[in-house]
Amino acid sequence: MSDLSKSARDPIAIAERMQRRRTRIFMIEGILFLVWQGIFLTNNEDPGASYRLVDWIRISGFMGWALVLLFLLATGGGFVWRRDVRELMRDESTRAHNRMAQAAGFWAAMIAALAVYVLSIFEPVTPSACMHWVLSAGIGVALLRFAMLERRGERG
């Protein structure tokens, strides 16, 4: 058996490759998620208007993506990989990075909530817009923080 085929099945080699891939995916997802929020921020909702079908689809897309990203943050991703690979990927430093990222997401959500509260003093803010901004800040910051911590850990 060649060395290449042995390393392809070696759980440690697989876990290292998957950790690098996960870091890239979390970074890209975090950036895309935050950039995509520009669509919602530019939408001027009329608080009394009823939702059209396109609005329901847009909101459902946001909620679905947010749920998937929350699930990835909660599990660290990799739920489709073999158990031995998953256990290697969830090492002590990764769990610590995940806790720090979730703490950063919490603080980002709290700061966004305070900002929306202050904004609501000067301009009416719909409850759905408020929740959207708070969720977006919390999830986006947590994803980016996790990816940055993991990237730093890979380098050194």
Structure in a nutshell:
With 156 residues, this protein is an all-alpha fold. It is 82% helix and 0% strand. The chain is built from 6 helices and no strands.
Characterization of the model:
- Helix content is 82%, strand content 0%.
- The protein has one domain (3-44, 53-155).
- The protein is elongated and about 55 Å long.
- The model has no long low-confidence stretch (mean pLDDT 84).
- It has 156 residues and is mainly alpha-helical.
- The protein contains 6 helices and no strands.
- The protein has helices spanning 3-9, 11-41, 53-75, 83-89, 92-122, 127-155.
What is the fold's blueprint, element by element?
Elements: H1 3-9, H2 11-41, H3 53-75, H4 83-89, H5 92-122, H6 127-155
Helix pairs in contact: 2-4, 2-6, 3-6, 5-6
List keywords for this structure.
6 helices, mainly alpha, 156 residues, elongated
Rg on CA atoms, Å? 19 Å
| Beta-strand percent range | under 5%
Structural class assignment? mainly alpha
Distance between the termini: 32 Å
The total count of helices amounts to: 6
Mean pLDDT, rounded to whole units?
A: 84
